[in-house]
Recover the amino acids of this structure.
């Protein structure tokens, strides 16, 4: 793991914490008024950090804060976490706040609904599954803050050899930094991915950059390694 990246992440969290010392960051009054124009929801914080704990264990920590301004924004408060036999949710917590930043409701891992990804079956034995939390409020605006931790395990059967790995990628923008690397150690593939979205208000001309990095993150999740039979 790159120690420089670790220190950058720690500094990033420290700065954002210091900004709100003695204040309630979930109060809607702290949202830049420009972001509220014709908006249904506002992303106030979004950060994902993936750490390599050992050679065959990867931990993904995701944190997000979203303020829902009206009923048309309710779908943005729905949480979907994809899982399979190599990726599972180890912890989850979500908190709902009213417009003044007061806690309304708290959810935990046991509140997640488990469903199969396949549309042809909803059995409990499918490998590709999704954990869902659905919430709708009768009053607006409200803010949902949630954090979950995923764990990954990548083990290649001894009968296969790794012939090729996906390409490493790095992107840096005013509002976000993204990097993903792939390395091989024995029969394990280690994926190190970091997405840092920065707080702030950005000009409309940055929208295309946002779309670009969003597509990059999505495409990185579908990269494939090439395996051959020994």
């Amino acid at each position: 793991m790159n120690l420089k990246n670790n220190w950058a992440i720690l500094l990033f969290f420290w700065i954002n914490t210091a900004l709100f010392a003695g204040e309630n960051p979930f109060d809607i009054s702290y949202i830049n008024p420009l972001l509220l124009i014709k908006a249904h929801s506002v992303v106030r914080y979004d950060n994902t950090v993936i750490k390599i704990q050992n050679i065959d264990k990867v931990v993904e920590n995701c944190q997000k804060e979203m303020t829902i301004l009206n009923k048309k924004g309710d779908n943005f408060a729905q949480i979907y976490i994809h899982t399979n036999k190599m990726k599972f949710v180890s912890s989850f917590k979500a908190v709902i706040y009213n417009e003044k930043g007061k806690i309304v409701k708290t959810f935990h891992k046991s509140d997640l609904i488990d469903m199969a990804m396949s549309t042809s079956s909803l059995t409990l034995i499918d490998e590709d599954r999704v954990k869902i939390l659905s919430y709708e409020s009768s009053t607006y605006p409200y803010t949902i803050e949630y954090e979950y931790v995923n764990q990954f395990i990548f083990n290649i059967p001894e009968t296969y050899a790794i012939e090729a790995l996906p390409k490493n990628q790095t992107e840096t923008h005013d509002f976000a930094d993204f990097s993903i690397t792939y390395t091989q150690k024995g029969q394990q593939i280690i994926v190190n991915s970091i997405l840092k979205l920065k707080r702030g208000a950005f000009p409309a001309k940055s929208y295309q950059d946002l779309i670009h990095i969003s597509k990059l993150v999505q495409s990185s999740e579908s990269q494939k390694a090439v395996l051959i039979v020994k």
